[in-house]
Structures are given as structure tokens and as C-alpha cells.
Amino acid sequence: MAGGMKRLAKDTAVYGLSSILGRMLNWLLVPMYSRVLAGTGEFGVMTNLYGWTALLLVLLTYGMETGFFRFINKKEIKNPMQVYSTTLISVGFTSVLFTIAGLIFLLPISNSLGYAEHPEYVAMLILIVSLDAFTAIPFAYLRYANRPIKFASIRLLIIFLNIALNIFLLVVCPWIYTNHPSLISWFYIPDYGVGYVFIANLIGSVLCLLLLVKELRGFTYSFDASLLKKMLRYSLPILILGLAGVFNQTADKILFPFLFEDKVYATEQLGIYGACFKIAVIMVMFTQAFRFAYEPFIFAKNKSEDNRKSYAEAMKYFIIFSLLIFLGVMFYLDILKYFVAPDYYPGLKVVPIVMLGELFFGIYFNLSLWYKLSDQTQWGAYFSTLGCVVTVCIIVFFAPLYGFMACAWASFACNLLMMVISYLVGQKKFPIKYDLRSAFIYFVAAGILYAVGMLPVISSEAIRLLYRTLLLGVFIAFVIKRDLPLRELPYIGRFLK
């Protein structure tokens, strides 16, 4: 048992850290994009199309990843590879069908999305989504087969390739073309810009499929229609929940261009919003890291007691950690703003709103334990659907008046609403005694320090940063004094003794 837990912890670290590292590496491309792409409009094109990609990827996998894990581990399944084979054939068939249909109707689709001049952008995204949806199943198989190293290695290799291709096509090639055009004029188009981002992604998706060929061979393919029906019946609620969840995160990027008659203006504004939204993604990455690093210790610490105490304790530290990240980003925004080019600075005002929205979503994610543990996952679909309605209404009615600020507030309101309702319903269905007093105290403390740090007008950037650093230190000292005594921490506590 101890060995199994040890392996579980190790595998979780590999999967989790590779996911966080991968996301961070892709995130680091944003400063380059904001400086080498021809204006904020091209960043807006990328933001819009990748919003569609995220939504379509959920649609094309239609919950079959989760369904695969559920059915391949069932005791009554005599031939696990038949589950894998059936899943591969199903997702492969729908991916091919989607590709064929998308390419046949490419021109009307491109026209309706506003990309009549560049239908190849849409074509590349269709191929990328289809490939990524199909390869999601071999990746799931690697997890089932307890092969985290290969899983993480392929993921990271594709990310590094994508970064290298982006740098080559967007930075190196323009320099070569300016100084020695004859060397690359046979393939390089100087003004293709954001198109090269999609080309790099497509190359990475094709290579990913090739690297997973071994997981597609060495067994007999067989298709079980009755098994597929059961899997689809199980996966359909997951699909609905996934679509609602992703749409909550991408609705602003998808809907924004349709709300303005001036499409050029819309994509430029979306580009500003999309780039500054990326700064707020720091909250997502750090809270993800928290869950991977801290929660296993919390749950293991109290495994002999009522686990509800562990959930409450994990929530308290999650809130502390998230508020610390929020203050850190906002207090050092004068430095972090250089993450994007000056043309994008008008969008910096969305950062605190989006970060708080992501903080609420993180709390909602932790609260979701109640309906997962009590097998009442339909509530997750209810909450996400309600969130979708709120998000769409705010964006549709207010974005034409207030621009991308309406998108930021839509994210804030949606996540806040889902968090509050999930808590209220959860306390009736699966009561957990969260430390609301501590949560309130930390939110108030962070709010006061934020106001004290941001309101005074300090002309000197150095003095302003020093002042805010001291305030951040006050918050850290408050946390240590109240809930995190240094003597109880590993290594540090031993040193102090």
C-alpha cells in the first residue's frame, strides 16, 4: 500500500509538473508575439481562433478520455484492449469526419468567422483540433499503463518544438530575409505573421501523432458497438459539463468579434484583452501548482481522520496562497507590464478583475469535491450552465458599450456566482465546515493592503516598488504569525530549532 501511494505521488508530480511547465513555456511566447506580430489585431486573430480550438477539442473528445478510464478499469471487462481499441476507432472516426466536413465547407466557415482572406488559418486549426482530439486517447492510454515519463517527455518535446519553430519563423526568418533574402525566399512569406503560429502548431501536432505510433500498434483492433453505447451514455454528461466549463473560459474570445460591425477594431481590441489576460494567467498556473504540491500532503496528513477536515484545511491554505499571488502580481505590475508591448498597455486594467475571477474559479474547483465525492456530478453541469448564461448575457449586452472590460467582468461575475451557489448547495448536500472566519479575515487584509498599495500616487517607480514590497511583506508576516509558524515548516523549522 505504501509503495502504491509512493508511486501515485511520483506519477502525480510528473504529470502535474509537466503540465504546469508546459503551460508556462507556452505562456513565455506572449512577449514575443506582442512585439513581432503586426499590431494587436493579429494577436486578436490568434486569441479568437484558439478560443474556438479549446471549445472544439472538448466537443471532439466528447468525454471519451474519462469514459476510457472508467470502463477499462471495470472488473467485468475481460479484454481491456478492446476498450482502448473501441475508443480509438470512435474518436478517430469522428475526428476524420470532422476534418472532411470542415475542409469541404471551409470557405463558408471562414467567411462566417471573418477570415475570408485567410481560409487556410481555419483549415490549419481544423487539422490541429482533429489531431489533438485523436492523440488524447493514446495519451490517456499512457496514463493507464503507468508510463508518466513517456507521457511528459512527448508533451514537453512538442512544446519545445513549438517554441523553436515560433522563434525561427517569427524572429530568425525575418532577419535572414532582410539580410540574405535569397536563402529563404523559396518558402518564407514576409507578411504572413500570425499564420506562422498556426503552422508551428500544426507541425507539432503531426509530430505528436508520429511519436505515439507505438501506442497505436501491437494489438488487434476490434470494435464493440454495445460497449461504445455504454461509454457514450456515461460520457455525455461529461461532454456537457466540459463544454459548459470551457465555454465559460472562452466565450469572451469567441463572441467578442461578432459584437462589432468594425471587425478590424474588434480584433485589435480582442488582441489587447487577450495579451493582458495572459498576465492574469499567472494566477491559474500558481494555483495549479498549489494543488499538485500541497493537497496530497494535506490529504495524507489526515487520512486516519474525517477527510472533511482535510478539505477545509486545504481550502484555507489555497485562499491564502491565491491572495498572496494576487497581491504579488498587482504590486509588481509596473514590472510585469513589460511582458507585453506598449500597444497593449490599455488592457492592463483587466488584470485585477480577471485574477480575482480566476481566484473564485479556483475556490469553486476546490468546492466541487462535494458533488464528485457524493456522486452528484449533475450539479456541476447545473452550475456550469448557469455560469454560461451569465457570461454570455454580460458579454452580449455590455461588450458593445464597454468593450473588453465587459469580458473581464463577465469572467468575474460568472466565477463568483458559481463559487457562491456551489458552496450553498454543497453545505446542504455534503456539509464541510470551512473556516469562513479565516477566509474573511484574509480577504479583508488583502483588500486593505491592495488599496493602501495602489491608491497613493508615487512618481518614483523604485520607491513605489519598495513601498509595495514592504506591504507584501506585511501580508506574509501576517500569514506566518496567524497560520504558518516557521517552526512547523520542513527544513526551516529544523534550522530554527
TrEMBL record:
Gene Ontology CC terms: plasma membrane
List where the protein spans the membrane.
12-29, 49-71, 83-109, 121-142, 154-177, 192-213, 234-251, 271-294, 314-333, 345-367, 379-402, 408-426, 438-459, 465-484
Q: Where in the cell is it found?
A: Cell membrane
Q: Which InterPro entries match?
A: Poly_Biosynth_Transport, Polysacc_synth
Question: Is Cell membrane tagged as a keyword?
Answer: yes
Topology with respect to the bilayer: Multi-pass membrane protein
Superkingdom classification of source: Bacteria
Keywords, alphabetical: Cell membrane, Membrane, Transmembrane, Transmembrane helix
Would you tell me the protein name for this molecule?
O-antigen/teichoic acid export membrane protein
Look up and give the organism this protein is from.
Answer: Macellibacteroides fermentans
